[in-house]
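About this split. The held-out portion is used to measure sequence recovery: a designer receives only the structure tokens and must propose an amino acid at every position. Recovery is the fraction of positions where the proposal matches the reference. Here is one held-out target exactly as it appears in the evaluation file.
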């Protein structure tokens, strides 16, 4: 079974419809994870699929109003819970198009393709 990096692997499957397949795969992978012991739930709006770039961006939110993270040390300052956000980006690429980790980081930092 291939790794399930935010649903981007579905771009390697020629017979699946996009962007639905990438989005559904990303939501399914998130459901298998947890943040501070609570299940991760994504809405379709939390998954951005860029078909032309074979890229999937997933944003996970833990909000004070809905599903906050309880604090430990900040509790001494009267802050018992807080919100946070994490974003992950996965991209499926042709194996002949390789970059070193340093090159990939520079591309991301400078918005290069």
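Reference sequence for scoring:
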């Amino acid at each position: 079974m291939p790794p399930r990096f935010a649903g981007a692997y579905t771009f390697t499957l020629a017979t699946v419809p996009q962007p639905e397949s990438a989005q559904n795969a990303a939501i399914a992978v998130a459901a298998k994870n947890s943040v501070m012991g609570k299940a991760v739930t994504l809405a379709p709006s939390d998954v951005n699929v860029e078909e032309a770039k074979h890229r999937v961006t997933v944003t996970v939110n833990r909000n004070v109003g809905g599903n906050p993270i309880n604090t430990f040390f900040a509790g001494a300052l009267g802050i018992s819970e807080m919100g946070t956000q994490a974003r992950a980006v996965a991209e499926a690429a042709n194996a002949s198009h390789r970059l070193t980790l340093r090159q990939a980081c520079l591309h991301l930092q400078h918005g290069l393709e």
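Annotator remark: Strands lie at 34-35, 38-39, 47-50, 55-62, 69-70, 81-82, 84-91.
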